[in-house]
């Protein structure tokens, strides 16, 4: 997707919501721009927390940045026909972060 940050549109998915020191503008796929003013922690499952996830109201998708995933967890991000996994020496076993759904 080219996302350089994790992004969600549902505020209820985030904990520890904070204001950005300086609001940022993100460009949507249709070329429109949205101002982002808040970020927080996104918890997925029991063991994954994605810090500094941007809250992007009116966005229709949740996006995870592959670069941020690999930096935060010191691991590789692997895509297969079944989904997306994190694997590396810092993890006891591969962690599933996404499944293929509807193609």
List keywords for this structure.
7 strands; three-stranded antiparallel beta sheet; mainly beta; 1 helix; four-stranded mixed beta sheet; Cathepsin D, subunit A, domain 1
Shape: globular
- The CATH topology is Cathepsin D, subunit A, domain 1
How many independent structural domains? 1
- Radius of gyration over C-alpha positions, nearest whole angstrom: 14 Å
Task: Produce the secondary structure layout.
Layout: E1 7-8, E2 14-27, E3 33-44, E4 48-55, H1 66-73, E5 76-79, E6 83-87, E7 95-99
Parallel strand pairs: 1-4
Antiparallel strand pairs: 2-3, 3-4, 5-6, 6-7
Structure, described:
By secondary structure, the chain is mainly β. The protein has a single domain (7-99), classed as Cathepsin D, subunit A, domain 1. 8% of the residues lie in helices and 49% in strands. The protein has one helix spanning 66-73; strands spanning 7-8, 14-27, 33-44, 48-55, 76-79, 83-87, 95-99.
């Amino acid at each position: 997707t080219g996302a350089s940050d994790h992004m969600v549109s549902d505020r209820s998915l985030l904990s520890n919501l904070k204001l950005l020191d300086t609001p940022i503008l993100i460009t949507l796929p249709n070329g429109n721009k949205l101002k982002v003013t808040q970020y927080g922690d996104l918890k997925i499952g029991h063991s994954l927390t994605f810090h500094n996830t941007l809250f992007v109201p009116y966005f229709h998708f949740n996006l995870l940045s592959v670069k941020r995933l690999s930096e935060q967890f010191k691991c590789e991000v692997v895509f297969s026909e079944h989904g997306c996994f994190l694997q590396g020496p810092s993890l006891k076993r591969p962690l599933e972060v996404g499944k293929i759904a509807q193609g």
